[in-house]
Amino acid sequence: MTKPVHPQTRIGHVHLKVSDLERAIGFYSGVLGFELQQRYGAQAAFLSAGGYHHHIGLNTWESQGAGPAPRGHPGLYHTAFLYPDRAALGDALRRVLEAGIALDGAADHGVSEAIYLSDPDGNGVELYCDRAEADWPRDDSGTLKMVNAPLDLEALLAEAA
């Protein structure tokens, strides 16, 4: 058996190919609120939360003007952004709805609550917050039992900061 990765290992950032850099910045910064940290000319940009060097890289190096990747083909299913609590997730939901962006779905997974949408290039986006690990659903043997239950969006919006 292979030794597991160090338990503090995390995904540091995502770098997306986009067809229109300004439109992508408008979504990730203007709607979701990530801050623009740096541009590489007209072809790439780096955005983050809290002043980090970048959580999101956007580039048009191989994709300027292209259409979305075809559905049903291998590739990124979605990028997930973890919010610190329900109030912050509720605020993200408010931003998305105020921008007129349709949701692809929403779910209570027992371990987390999530909303799903697509960015302007058709890339899947998950916005979610975790529950405390002590509250995660488990069976009698302690095995995690995630669910896919409806999420009350109105209650989530009511908690928005």
Short note summarizing the structure:
This protein is α/β, with parallel strands linked by helices and 161 residues long.
Q: Could you walk me through the main structural features you see in this protein, from its secondary elements to its overall organization?
A:
This protein is α/β, with parallel strands linked by helices. The chain folds into two domains: 12-64, 2,3-Dihydroxybiphenyl 1,2-Dioxygenase, domain 1 (Roll), CATH 3.10.180.10; 78-161, Roll (2,3-Dihydroxybiphenyl 1,2-Dioxygenase, domain 1). The chain has three helices and eight strands. The protein has helices spanning 21-31, 86-98, 153-158; strands spanning 14-17, 35-40, 44-48, 56-59, 79-83, 105-108, 112-118, 124-130. The termini are far apart.
What key attributes describe this structure?
161 residues, alpha/beta, 2,3-Dihydroxybiphenyl 1,2-Dioxygenase, domain 1, 2 domains, four-stranded mixed beta sheet
Number of helical elements: 3
State the major sheet.
Answer: 4 strands, mixed
Which secondary-structure class do the elements indicate? alpha/beta
CATH fold group of the largest domain: 2,3-Dihydroxybiphenyl 1,2-Dioxygenase, domain 1
Strand content: 25-35%
In total, how many beta strands?
8
CATH architecture assignment of the largest domain? Roll
Radius of gyration, whole Å = 17 Å
Secondary-structure element order, as H and E? Answer: EHEEEEHEEEH
End-to-end separation in angstroms reads 46 Å
Kindly report the spatial arrangement of strands forming the biggest sheet: 1-4-3-2
